[in-house]
Amino acid sequence: MIDIVAYNHHDRCYVNDLTVNDIETCLTDERLYVWVDFNKPNSDEIDLLKTLFKLDPLAIEDCTHTRQLPKLESFSDYHFFIVQGPTLNVGNLATDAVELDGFLADRYLITYHEEEIPSITEAKKKNLKSTGRLSQGVSYLAYDILDHMIDMYLPILDFLEEKNRLLTAELHNHSFNEKTTQEYMALARYILDLRRTATKNQQVFYQFSHSSLAFIDADEARLFRDIHDHMIRVMDMSDYYHHTLHETLNIQLSLSSHRMNQVVQLLTIMATIMLPLNVITGIYGMNFTWMPLLHSPYGFWSTVALMLAIIGGLLFYFRRRKWI
Known about the structure:
9 strands, two-stranded antiparallel ribbon
């Protein structure tokens, strides 16, 4: 599906009810700012990118092959960009990134996406109400769409903060178990994926704001610099959460190892105490006729007293060594 929005900056009004047949006329009319949105286009609509807009074939191929890494490439009369916006799948902690491809020229903006993107939908509503950024120029519209798209990182950062707080509370409450450990590992992988995408996006917005690109003046570059600063904050926060998770998991593993050592120590002490007792009972369990105290009326109690003395001596020794 193709949606077309145009603004006449000479008459200061929006041009409505445009169809695909009007695109060529709009592109040649220097009074118009034109936005063409390709939403899940079919093969015939994709061909328009080559036949009507004369776009680079490799750039078109990048559009049709999803899950491309974010990037910005400049051509003679337009810039081609790919940006990935995050979505949060809480059920399996997966980053289902939404890809937006775009072609930014002096008077037109082309957006291409295979999935519904809230920032695109919102921008269309604003322009239909004559309150959109297209009236200021296509670069301002591109900024508005990308800024709202990147704003999706904010609820994800809030989710990571809350998830990290809950898992840390479980650690302090000694309710940390194998399931919690698996959640920690999944969350750590999620943050790494999130940061990888954010890093690539940050490089794109750095080029937008610091490369003196054609069709983008100083004021527009300043707007893109704001998105760039936003991405730096996302990267810093994701680094912080990943570091916190890593440290918390290390503490949990240390505590688990300490508890295991305590159990092993207790079992070792019990085995050490039982060893001499087993030796004594083993000796008196042999079938010999003549053995010391074997027929004595005090033999049993003497043996018990010896065993108790050995237990007491070992416990005293372990206490002196601070093993118990």
